[in-house]
Amino acid sequence: MPLKTTITASLSSFVGPVRALIGIAGVGLGVLLVLAPLTTHQIAVVTGIGLALAGIAAALLPTIDGFTRVSARVFGAVLFVLGAIIAVWPAGGAPWLAFLVGASLIGHGVLQTVQVIRHGGDQRATSIVIALASIVFGVVALAWPVLTLTFFRLGVGTWFVFFGLQLVMAAMYRRAPRTDRPRGRVARWSRTIGASLALVLAVGVALGSGWALGGVPLPEPGRFYVPPAEVPSEPGRLIRSEPLRTGIPKGAEGWRILYTTTTFDGTPAVSSGTIVAPKNRADGELPLLSIAHGTTGVAAKCAPSLSATPLADGAGAALETMVVEHGWAAVTSDYIGLGTSGTHPYLIGDAEARNVLDATRAAREFAEISVGSETVVWGHSQGGQGSLWTGQVAAEYAPEITLQGIAAFAPAADLYGLAEVNKTEATGKTVSAYIASTWSELYPELQLASQLTPGSARGVDKIESLCFNGKDALSAILHGTQVPNQIFPDAVLDGAFGELLRAQTPTGPFAAPVLVAQGLADPLVKPDQQLDWVRARCEDGLEIDYRPYAGLDHLSLVAADSPLTPQLVQWTLDRAAGAPATPNCDAVAK
């Protein structure tokens, strides 16, 4: 036997077991990607290792002619290098990683298709199906780069499993030319079924990713939200109103309103909002709630008054009880930039407070109802910060309005602390993206747009167009999971930007008794931070009624079945009746 033939035969006997071992490793990596609770960087490392192994396997493809041999080895080397880059540089940014993964998968699929077309095989159709699945997964990665490290890991992991099984089965059933018998029926069908499942999953991921990340079409603000050429110069003046037909509780009626207000620097502006009142109401003044709503997004289409459920935010069940059963009216500000033109002052407490107080003023001009100058303020999350700021600035900004009580549910009271502890989590990244997109406009001197971490800008651009309600909220959070790093570098948080975040902490004094409710299972507004804020206010001599709720998270705290709901109703009725407040600073002291 010639020496060259002997060497080739020896290498062939070596290549088979190596490809089988790579296949076993591929299956293991795929299972790890699909099932293990990996961090973003761990996902990148596992994906990179898998692609590097796929490159080695591609370089060891059995070939017949020189062209295929050279192309297989070149592609295998490229795939190995790309996989190694991903494995050693997991923080490189989702767009780059998406490109590397997508290009690798497409290249592998094309190479396998060329191999099958040129040389055939007893399962040509099955091999082409596997190649198509690889190409579809690659196209999804390129079209939806934010999927690559989390949502798309399911597809990549599954591809690794089938790719690995293909290598293992090829080693088990491989045959030499002209001597071995064709593969058995079980082997052929198992490979065909596996290939078909891979293609079905690839198409499913492509369709599902578009549904999950695309958001939903929301109504854009219409002519109602455009103010006339001339508006009153005074803040709190009602410009116009119209009936609100959707999302209003049975036994109540609602209206959209447009009114004048000011920005945090005193510049005149226009905001929209809603008013709701009992349908059957007696003559005389109605007691009034002023609502500061929580995060709904930062785009104009995210205004609560545009939503199909305008009163659902925050303690919606308690609000319905107050209106329908106890005969109260309620007014909610959308805030500047939601519904109306301008940049939404997201989590800028003074601006939120001015918008809330001016909505209360506008409600007093609304001819359909009669309300006095007294009100109780509620707010959840962003609105919790807004309600506290309302209590802090009311005496100076709107001295004619008397606050009877201030209720804040899971308030974003310590904004800097929240930014610090949530900077690597999906919801924290989503909130940071909202801050980045709005504060870049409101504080141009910070130059935030140029100081984001690598790979964050694309996620910020996408998240800022999504509302934080309904399916859009899922899309916004999923996009947040795909930003590989925290939005703001630590150096930015430690600089002037961090000082502005700290300045958003409401410290009092407050114009009325304060209730702070906090779920102890809240993953966004951390209970320990909230307790620290309460203790600091108590140490300042302020009186806070702090109520923690075991087992409740950020949303279940204000759900209809939450123990807070009936307590909030009673607390509000007590404030309007002039009952003594119930502070408990002694109970929360360190």
Please describe what this structure looks like:
InterPro entries: AB_hydrolase_fold, DUF308_memb, Lipase_secreted. Keywords: Membrane, Transmembrane, Transmembrane helix. The chain crosses the membrane at residues 20-38, 44-63, 70-90, 96-114, 126-145, 151-173, 193-213. It is a single chain. The chain has 590 residues and is of the alpha/beta class. The chain has 3 domains: 12-173 and 184-213, no CATH class; 230-414 and 505-588, Rossmann fold; 417-501. Helices cover 51% and strands 11% of the residues. The chain is built from 19 helices and 9 strands. A 9-stranded mixed sheet has the order 1-2-3-5-4-6-7-8-9, sandwiched between helices. It is elongated and about 90 Å long. The model is unreliable at 3-11 and 175-182 (pLDDT under 50).
Secondary structure blueprint with pairings:
Blueprint: H1 3-35, H2 40-59, H3 66-88, H4 94-119, H5 124-143, H6 153-173, H7 185-213, E1 238-244, E2 252-262, E3 268-278, E4 288-292, H8 316-325, E5 329-333, H9 349-365, E6 374-380, H10 382-397, E7 402-409, H11 415-421, H12 426-442, H13 457-463, H14 470-482, H15 490-493, H16 496-503, E8 514-519, H17 527-539, E9 544-549, H18 564-577, H19 585-588
Parallel strand pairs: 4-5, 4-6, 6-7, 7-8, 8-9
Antiparallel strand pairs: 1-2, 2-3, 3-5
Helix pairs in contact: 1-2, 1-6, 2-3, 2-4, 2-6, 3-4, 4-5, 5-6, 5-7, 6-7, 8-18, 9-10, 11-16, 12-13, 12-14, 13-14
